[in-house]
Amino acid sequence: KAGVTQTPRYLIKTRGQQVTLSCSPISGHRSVSWYQQTPGQGLQFLFEYFSETQRNKGNFPGRFSGRQFSNSRSEMNVSTLELGDSALYLCASSLPGGSDEQYFGPGTRLTVT
Amino acid sequence: AQSVTQLGSHVSVSEGALVLLRCNYSSSVPPYLFWYVQYPNQGLQLLLKYTTGATLVKGINGFEAEFKKSETSFHLTKPSAHMSDAAEYFCAVTMGSSASKIIFGSGTRLSIRP
């Protein structure tokens, strides 16, 4: 079974631009979560989608948004990029349920210049 | 509120030596506990998890962890370190059924000396 895939793997953008990142979950997984990982803040939860609905959202500004499609694939969008948005963005998929572990993709490394 | 504390941002051990990575948690209800490993330029991979039942949990790559409720700890151990164990390790806790309730520790970077 193929793992979680994220595209692109690396991205360089300029301040003020917007970016869209994509995540394809493991087949059969309907829950997709996004995390931002930075050296200073560690792993921070962005949002979670289940059956095309945002189920939970972390403490990030409205510039960060996401969506999920009927095939469970998910995208996240960051508008008006800031230097501080430079990070590794990780996507994880899981089956519903608190004890089910999340399977992480390799991440998208975003650099904002 | 839940929280996770990993003691030591960097741990260095010799190849063949015992690995001990410390994790303490705070939770008002019985938690689910996880250890993840992250290799450079990769996502996180689950090493092991505790939900209920046996408090000594065995994971992949020879790692194990013991849930100690009285000490609110979930330390990760491996009897004999291998060079390939060099990575960053994250302890995590959740008590809910959705990702937003998963709290990650700040991570411990494990280095292995030849």
Secondary structure topology:
The complex is a heterodimer of chains A (113) and B (114).
Chain A: E1 5-7, E2 10-13, E3 19-24, E4 31-38, E5 42-50, E6 53-57, E7 64-68, E8 74-78, E9 87-94, E10 103-104, E11 108-112
Parallel strand pairs in A: 2-11
Antiparallel strand pairs in A: 1-3, 3-8, 4-5, 4-9, 5-6, 7-8, 9-10, 9-11
Chain B: E1 3-7, E2 10-14, E3 19-26, E4 32-38, E5 44-50, E6 56-58, E7 64-68, E8 73-78, E9 87-94, E10 103-104, E11 108-113
Parallel strand pairs in B: 2-11
Antiparallel strand pairs in B: 1-3, 3-8, 4-5, 4-9, 6-7, 7-8, 9-10, 9-11
Describe, in short, the structure shown.
The complex is a heterodimer of chains A (113) and B (114). Chain A has no helices and eleven strands.
Explain the overall architecture.
The complex is a heterodimer of chains A (113) and B (114). Chain A has 113 residues and is mainly β. Chain A is 0% helix and 53% strand. In chain A, the strands form 2 sheets. In chain A, strands 2, 4, 5, 6, 9, 10 and 11 form a 7-stranded mixed sheet that branches. A 4-stranded antiparallel sheet of chain A has the order 1-3-8-7, with no helix packed on it. In chain A, strand 7 and strand 8 form a beta hairpin. Chain B has 114 residues and is mostly beta strands. In chain B, the strands form 2 sheets. In chain B, strands 2, 4, 5, 9, 10 and 11 form a 6-stranded mixed sheet that branches. In chain B, strands 1-3-8-7-6 form a 5-stranded antiparallel sheet, with no helix packed on it. Chain B starts with a strand and ends with a strand. The mean pLDDT of chain B is 91. Classes of the chains: A mainly beta (113), B mainly beta (114). The interface between A and B is medium-sized, with 28 and 25 residues.
